[in-house]
Design brief:
The complex is a heterotrimer of chains A (393), B (152) and C (173). Helix content of chain B is 22%, strand content 29%. By secondary structure, chain B is α/β, with parallel strands linked by helices. Chain B has one domain (2-142): NADH:ubiquinone oxidoreductase Nqo5 subunit (Beta Polymerase, domain 2, 2-Layer Sandwich). Chain B is globular. The mean pLDDT of chain B is 85. Chain C has one domain: Rossmann fold. Chain C is 40% helix and 15% strand. Chain C has a 5-stranded parallel beta sheet with strand order 2-1-3-5-7. Chain C is globular. The N and C termini of chain C lie far apart (43 Å). Mean pLDDT of chain C is 82; it is low at 161-173. Classes of the chains: A alpha+beta (393), B alpha/beta (152), C alpha/beta (173).
Chain lengths: 393, 152, 173
């Protein structure tokens, strides 16, 4: 008998069919219980921060928009707001309103996308297909406004490039009516569906203290009762004149994270309608110098996943000196590493899906160590997902 | 909020700047970083939003580290400088466990040694990345890190 | 002899028929921004429903005929990409989806980027766009299937030389 047993490691990933993104997690398990978790990113690390230093301010906008294809607009917004701050100009009110409008439409698309993917992780493929079908409604609207379904390039330095006319406004209102009805159905599923509750209620509980200590952001924090939302705390763009109601839940479990996101959708619908009703008249862009005056700026915006933090430094030339991007997924990952310890391996996929991880944002496989048997198991994400579904069958 | 932070950090402050209404930049000595961060955490002042490392270039010979803390609209930035050829800061993971990711990033991207940080594995860069080549340094050239396709 | 050849031909025809009707695909993101990945997922969902062509997204490379790649190839993902490709049974086809998978796209010149998928693997179908619309992805798949019917040989087999650098194959996913 050895005094200390070798941990049983299960590496998972990096290619997992459901998350669509590579990342490497390594979990140590004792039987079915996770004892330790670690993370290795870098599979989609492209070196964007350095790349931005080698491009002009305008070119960097298009690069930064491609940090993440799901929340491309918020990246561009954070960057534009920061550069405008440095240059000492402000985009016209109509441009600010359209920025917020596209950001809110993007939030709908992102939350519905997440609801589908999370449902898929739990084995509810029906819900996955439904939410993705409904998501096409908002994809159409985004395409109508900007001309592209993903990576909209709605932002320019100093404004936006697309306008909303009456016909588009009517189309958006009609789309919202349909989505609101469907969201009511999803809320009903999330609150009452017995099968769904078994996979979500009381799982991956994060207390308010933990949420604050770990510095989690976005819906993950709000599901633990931490009312943290940049749109309210430090309003930007059109949110300065548009009060946003923060949706929080106290339970801190997976179900709360579902409820928060679904309820946020209703708030988003309300915001979009208000934005359309009060859309200011005027120009869409202001002139912005090619060379940005030297200085530093911090720009924070609320991405669908939480606070997105940009630090920009200019040296007075036409190229950025330094751009630091802190995406919401990074602090939330820290919570996964803590939350999964002591939990069943079968809950790992759902806990991970619960924070709505965005690998490309950060950079990003899964490995599991077993303290019981002293062997390494290698699992694909699919195997882990299936394991989760089997356990709860 | 900012006043409260300024008061908490007073003991270690070397200089302060307010670049924007809701911001406060506090310059500290690297040795005072740990107690300063601990003071903010004990007073439950905000949360660590990010750690940014800025290479000031070979001429300046220094790397500046910015520890951004946010509380509502207020942003406090602790600025610490360290020599470029011997970049070294203490770890703040004891009081802020989530700083681990940022510190791993500093180590691999800028070559800053972070003392006592719990995890020194690479986070973003590939395993075959050459040692002592730090992509976010200003004198980094693409040739420093040959692409794997070219040597195999 | 003649008799045997006919049998051989019939067997080939049968295999092609089966392959064209149910190509199984695996998706790998080697450094994409997610934009293409969500569009690939969208092609599977009810609005576009790629499964009507028999194409099914599959979890394991050992069951897959088609590798759908998105994104530029990052240094870290390169070995994984090759390993997945090596695990696939022959004949195998590669579809590169999106500008980045074609050339490196917006990320060209970044230190962690090797370039497009064809820097590493022989590619059969290129689907341009940033990201390509779901219709474009479906078009790419259908083009491949039509070519298969016409007796197309995979790019890997035609070039002969483009065997990727061998890596030790383990059971890694």
């Amino acid at each position: 008998m050895t005094a200390e047993r070798e941990p049983f490691r299960i590496p998972i990933g990096p290619q997992h069919p459901s998350l669509k993104e590579p990342g490497h997690f390594e979990f140590s398990v004792d039987g079915e219980i996770v004892t330790q978790a670690s993370l290795r990113l870098g599979y989609v690390h492209r070196g964007i921060e350095k790349g931005a230093e080698q491009r002009s301010w305008v070119q960097a906008l298009y690069l930064l928009e491609r940090v993440c294809g799901i929340c491309s607009h918020v990246h561009a917004t954070a960057y534009c707001l920061g550069v405008e701050k440095l240059a000492g100009v402000e985009a016209p009110p109509r441009a600010q309103a359209i920025r917020s409008l596209v950001a809110e439409l993007e939030r709908i698309h992102s939350h519905l996308l997440w609801l589908g993917v999370a449902a898929h992780e739990a084995g509810f493929d029906m819900l996955f297909m439904h939410s993705w079908r409904d998501r096409e409604t908002v994809m159409n609207l985004l395409e109508g406004i900007t001309g592209n379904r993903v990576n909209y390039s709605a932002n320019l330095l100093g404004g936006v490039k697309c306008d909303i006319d009456q016909r588009l406004a009517d189309a958006i209102r009609a789309g919202l009516d349909y989505l609101e009805e469907r969201t009511q159905h999803y809320l009903d599923v999330v609150l009452n569906d017995a099968l769904f509750l078994r996979r979500t209620r009381g799982i991956g509980v994060m207390s308010r203290e933990d949420a604050e200590r770990l510095g989690v952001v976005g819906p993950t924090a709000r599901a633990s009762g931490v009312a943290r939302d940049v749109r309210v705390d430090a309003p930007y763009a059109a949110y300065r004149t548009l009060p946003v109601q923060i949706v929080t839940e106290m339970a801190g479990d997976l179900q709360a994270r579902f409820i928060v996101r679904v309820r946020e959708l209703f708030e988003t619908y309300r915001l979009i309608r208000t934005l359309l009703d009060t859309l200011p008249e005027g120009e869409l862009t202001v002139r912005i110098p090619r060379r940005i005056p030297p200085g530093e700026a911090i720009s924070r915006v609320e991405a669908p996943r939480g606070e997105l933090f940009y630090y920009l430094k200019s040296n007075g030339s036409d190229q950025p000196e330094r751009i630091k991007i802190r995406t919401p997924t990074l602090p939330n990952f820290a919570s996964v590493l803590v939350l999964t310890v002591g939990r069943q391996l079968a809950d790992v996929p759902m806990i991970l899906a619960g924070i709505d991880p965005c690998f490309s944002c950060n950079d990003r496989m899964v490995a599991i160590h077993d303290t019981g048997e002293g062997r390494d198991r290698r699992w694909t994400w699919e195997q882990l997902r299936q394991h989760g579904i089997e356990v709860y069958r | 909020m900012l006043k409260a932070a300024a008061r908490l950090l007073q003991r270690w402050t070397q200089a302060t700047v307010t670049p924007e209404p809701e911001r406060l930049d506090v310059t500290l000595d690297a040795a005072d970083l740990v107690p300063a961060v601990a003071a903010l955490q004990e007073a439950r002042w905000g949360y660590l939003a990010a750690i940014t490392g800025v290479d000031l270039g070979p001429e300046a010979g220094e790397i500046e580290l910015l520890y951004h803390f946010c509380a509502g609209a207020a942003v406090v930035t602790l600025r610490v400088r360290t020599p470029r050829n011997q970049a070294f800061v203490p770890s703040i993971c004891d009081s802020v466990p989530s700083a681990s990711f940022y510190e791993r990033e500093l180590m691999e991207m800028l070559g800053v040694t972070v003392a006592n940080t719990p995890n020194t594995d690479r986070l973003f860069l590939p395993d075959d990345w050459p040692q002592e080549v730090y992509p976010l340094r200003k004198d980094f050239r693409l040739e420093d890190a040959p692409l794997p396709g070219s040597d195999t | 002899m003649e008799f045997n050849k006919t049998w051989q031909d019939m067997l080939e025809q049968l295999k092609t028929w089966a392959r064209v009707n149910s190509p199984w695909a695996i998706h790998f993101n080697s450094g994409s921004c997610n934009g293409c990945d969500i569009e690939i997922l969208a092609t599977l969902t009810p609005r576009y429903d790629m499964e009507r062509f028999g194409l099914k997204l599959q979890g394991s490379p050992r069951h897959a005929d088609v590798l759908i790649c998105t994104g530029p190839v990052t240094r870290q993902a390169r070995d994984r990409l090759i390993r997945i490709y090596e695990q696939m049974p022959d004949p195998k086809f590669v579809i590169a989806v999106g500008s980045c998978a074609l050339s490196g796209g917006a990320f060209q010149g970044c230190y962690n980027i090797l370039g497009g998928i064809d820097q590493v693997l022989p590619v059969d179908v290129y689907v341009p766009g940033c990201p390509p619309r779901p219709e474009a992805i479906i078009d790419g798949v259908v083009k491949l299937l039509e070519q298969l019917k016409a007796g197309y040989q995979p790019a890997a087999r035609r070039s002969g030389v483009l065997r990727p650098v061998p890596v030790p194959v383990t059971d890694a996913g």
